[in-house]
Amino acid sequence: MAARHTWKSYLLWCANEHVSFRIPEVEAILAMYKIPHTWIEKPAENPWMLISMPSEDCAIKLMKRSVTVRSIIELWARSTTKEHLDDQLKILPTEFTFYFKKENTFKVVVDTFNKVTSQEDKIKKIESFSFLPILGTANLKNPSVTYHYYEFFGLDAGRIPENPYDYFFGRWVSNSERSAVEKYSLKTRHFIGNTSMDPKLSMIMANLAQIDDGHVVVDPFVGTGSLLVAAAHFGGYVCGTDIDYLTLHGKMKPSRAHQKKRQPDEDIKGNLKTYNLFSRYLDVFVGDASRPVWRPEFRFDSIITDPPYGIRESTEKVGSKKIAPVPEELASPHFPSKTQYGLGDMYKDLLNFAANNLKVNGRVVFWIPIIRMEYDPDLLPEHPCLETVANSEQILNLHSSRRLITMQKTMEPKEAADSAIIHDLQYTFRHKFFNTGEIKGRAREDVQAEYLTKRSKRGNGVAKLPCNE
Ligand SMILES: C[S@@+](CC[C@H](N)C(=O)[O-])C[C@H]1O[C@@H](n2cnc3c(N)ncnc32)[C@H](O)[C@@H]1O
């Protein structure tokens, strides 16, 4: 480990979205790469965090993965007043003034949070640093050193203070992986469906799952494979199962309004090919998550998934409501019909699968729908072999949200491999969703009518309609 005195403070300047995912994402990356660090400040809501690390390499490594952070700055001064910030900059140590040398071209970037600043004001702010003894010439296109000046005006857009709450000044070190995500935009993606997961959230999930080069990753509710794209981007070898043949093989109705027919290569494999990630594709196949087909001794590095919540589509598993007409030992191995798959049972199966088929220290990352008023972290699914390491909320509407849960396997199960504990919240979500808060009257009838129409159109077959969103 590097000597403590070489450590520097860094400012993580975050994107103004996915707020509750920031700290868990950064902590997952720090832990995955075993990056030595000390938190200085990590406010849960503010778009910045302060951390101390032993080297710039650590900062760059962190940025190579993060999606919630925009950029990392070597922090030279931080204050709650401009005068005090300037005072600190007037007595910078030589390790920082070193960058002021003549050979270095430079530029200064000004950024304000929660306040729009005109170009004219930005120039005035830049000029307020003219006391810095910078000897190089300005170069706005390709500077060798970029200085960043940030002003934080709080979070309340309705009450913007006259002066910022916080001032930061430092040297830019690196931007994050965020801009790389643009190429995975659903707008331009070859194969999508109505439930395709947003690429940024998919990347955040892959980071929480600590997917790294060579890992074997599975999504048991794979849909159109958005999570496999993110996992393959970070070097994972990917596979998945879905109960719906049509979704899995891109045979369902096109989701884009202008498109009449799907292309022959419009499927998960086709997506990975267009993104140059095909070498990471293992396979996808029709399978029921309630009956995992994997060999019991096989261990995955990670499981990332977005199970159906049963709002716009029913949750189903293979089976029949009828009492078996023939004894099980004589029954055909073919199960033509499907039966309701309660959310509680689905999470029970998922956790048992993770406890059985993950490597020790491997992670399972999954979404779970919540009625906000009822939320209690003690009533989330549990398993004696899995420890919850992160739990972030994405609000969907006034009364419901979904939470992204990250669990890490701590040990191999002993006798009771199916010891997941599921609380009532998971069993009652769907019923409560249709009977709580603002989903009332007409709105509720609409959602329920849509659900029932889709269900009756699908009959007992394999065609499946979009879920969740
Ligand atoms: C929310 S969608 C997944 C979306 C996916 N992450 C994507 O990006 O397209 C849930 C998927 O679970 C599938 N599913 C539902 N019940 C299942 C079961 N018992 N076993 C496996 N897959 C199931 C549905 O067909 C659907 O494609």
Any key phrases for this structure?
single chain; 469 residues; alpha/beta; VC0802-like; Rossmann fold; 7-stranded mixed beta sheet; 24% helix; elongated
Provide a quick synopsis of the model.
This protein is α/β, with parallel strands linked by helices and 469 residues long. It contains twelve helices and 16 strands.
Give the helix/strand layout.
Layout: E1 8-14, H1 22-32, E2 38-41, E3 48-53, H2 56-63, E4 69-79, H3 82-90, H4 94-97, E5 106-113, H5 119-127, E6 145-152, E7 166-175, H6 199-208, E8 216-219, H7 226-233, E9 237-242, H8 245-248, H9 268-274, E10 281-286, E11 300-305, E12 316-318, E13 338-340, H10 343-357, E14 358-371, E15 386-395, E16 400-409, H11 424-433, H12 441-458
Parallel strand pairs: 5-6, 8-9, 8-11, 9-10, 11-14
Antiparallel strand pairs: 1-3, 1-4, 2-3, 4-7, 6-7, 12-13, 14-16, 15-16
Helix pairs in contact: 1-6, 6-7, 10-11
Bound molecules: S-adenosylmethionine (SAM).
- How many E-type strands? 16
User: H/E element string?
Assistant: EHEEHEHHEHEEHEHEHHEEEEHEEEHH
Give the overall form. Answer: elongated
Q: How do the strands line up in the largest sheet?
A: 2-3-1-4-7-6-5
Radius of gyration: 26 Å
Q: What is the number of helices?
A: 12
Summarize the amount of helix as a percent range. Answer: 10-25%
- Biggest sheet, open or closed, and with what strands and sense? 7 strands, mixed
Beta-strand level of the residues, as a percent range? Answer: 15-25%
Question: First CA to last CA: what distance?
Answer: 46 Å
